[in-house]
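Hi P.,

Sorry for the delay on this. The queue was packed all week, but I finally got your sequence through. Input first:
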Amino acid sequence: MIFNLVFSFLFSFVSAKTLVDKAVVVVNSEPILQSELQTLIGRTKKEGGVDELLLFEDSMAKLKADRKTQIDFLIKEKLIGTEIRRLGLGISDEKVNSEMGAMANRNQVSREQLESMIKRQGYTIDEYKVLLKARLERQAFFESEIIGKLRITDEDAYSEFRNTNPNFKENVSSFKLGQIFFDPKRGGIVTGK
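Then the structure:
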């Protein structure tokens, strides 16, 4: 009888397998789970839940409706997160708390009022801190890896402007600069460009 009881317990334990989560795609040996996809769908419904910088050419409406766009978005988040960790650009919890204090000061509200505003947007304070931390880390990444290495000269900007605006004509206040030299030995003016 004890044997039957133990056997039936083990059989029910083994046969009660439940799928907890499922990998949708693997990025650099890190899975993106079905639960992350569901969380993203929930994030799209909340203001500020999605960093729109990562949408690139996609729209928020497309992100809300299209599964492939959602997966692509999560891949971008995962790749940037991997680079942030590799470069050591992680943000501490103290920095997140400090930024929340600065946000309260910028908005001229108390910390409690800021937290109340966050809760009205549908976030818990811990959820908001996770979002804020991710945004600060991505900002540090973009500043160090993209903006910090971006060099655009005035000539590059002007050339791009002319290329994208083919009907542009220089107006009457535009002029070309030349150099005028005075040569005292010759007793005259020498011009050059």
